[in-house]
Design goal:
296 residues, 31% helix
Length: 296
């Protein structure tokens, strides 16, 4: 079956994302208090007593203010051995600590936030029965609050939108990342021959996934389709000679853009070459981390 409308294929690729998630543990209840983090692991509380808050509750915060949220969970057995994320969206920006150690930072697009980054990867995984004390140190999203503050606003109001522990199927996540990246390249490709072959590689792979038989059947259909997609990509992409250098930070630097009128051509060549490298050079799964909307 060949998809005639590219938007149909785009929607099919988007539908892969929810199947990445195999397990969820919602974290609904949080003890909340206000104060100042004056030094590592040293929080000076103000006179306000702690309160109990739940997902869906609203909270206010202004410049130079901090609201803390704490909760403790026990890791279920089914999460052990899997790739696990902590997904937090409380509005604003926040530092996240687990068992007293900073593990990352999150930010929300709520109320004009500029960046939406809500997942933190447990790089060493989790163990069944392990206790996790989670602390979220929340503050305003300064970028989103700036214009309002200039106009006289004293605070922003946010929502405890989401808090959950999420386990994902590694191969399904990797396949979704790969085929989504291929779609991004397809949308920017100006070589119609390459674009057509890239479209067919994605289309033929996606049409053989078991969308309608439930999560387990879908995940079981991924390994064969992922291998098939990789093979088709290698046959579809002919790289252009572009000088590349790998940086320690896992970025790519393109040398010699030349005249500005060549910028568009070079960008296309770079996209195609990255696709070629991606299909021929093994990439650590730790680099394949992409933001999830984590829809149920």
């Amino acid at each position: 079956m060949h998809t005639l409308n590219p938007n149909v294929l785009k929607n099919q690729i988007r539908q892969i994302e929810p199947y990445c998630v195999t397990n969820r543990l919602e974290i609904d209840s949080w003890k909340s208090y206000t104060g100042m983090h004056v030094s590592p692991n040293n929080i000076v509380l103000d006179e306000n007593p702690p309160i109990q808050m739940y997902l869906g509750d609203r909270w206010k915060v202004g410049y130079d203010e901090t609201r803390y949220f704490e909760s403790e969970i026990t890791v279920p057995a089914e999460f052990e051995g899997k790739k696990v994320y902590l997904s937090i969206d409380f509005g604003g920006e926040a530092i996240v600590r687990i068992n007293g150690q900073i593990v990352g930072a999150v930010s929300s697009e709520e109320n004009f936030g500029w960046v939406h980054r809500t997942e933190i990867l447990f790089k060493d995984g989790v163990k069944a029965g392990e206790k996790l004390n989670i602390q979220v140190e929340g503050a305003v999203n300064c970028a989103g609050f700036c214009d309002r503050a200039i106009a006289g606003a004293k605070y922003m109001e946010y929502t405890l939108n989401k808090a959950e522990l999420i386990a994902v199927d590694r191969l399904t996540e990797s396949y979704w990342f790969d085929i989504s990246t291929a779609w991004d390249a397809y949308e920017h490709c100006e070589d119609e021959y390459v674009k057509s072959r890239l479209f067919n590689a994605m289309d033929d792979s996606v049409h053989q996934l078991d969308y309608d038989l439930g999560g387990e059947a879908f995940i079981a259909s991924v390994p064969k389709r992922s291998t098939f997609f990789g093979v088709r990509l290698k046959k579809s992409i002919t790289p252009h000679p572009v000088k590349l250098s790998w940086q320690v930070t896992a970025t790519l630097t393109l040398h010699g853009f030349g005249q500005s009128k060549r910028l568009r051509e070079k960008r296309q060549e770079l996209s195609l070459t990255i696709l070629h490298l991606w299909t021929t050079i093994p990439i650590s799964s730790s680099l394949r981390v992409r933001r999830f909307s984590m829809t149920s």
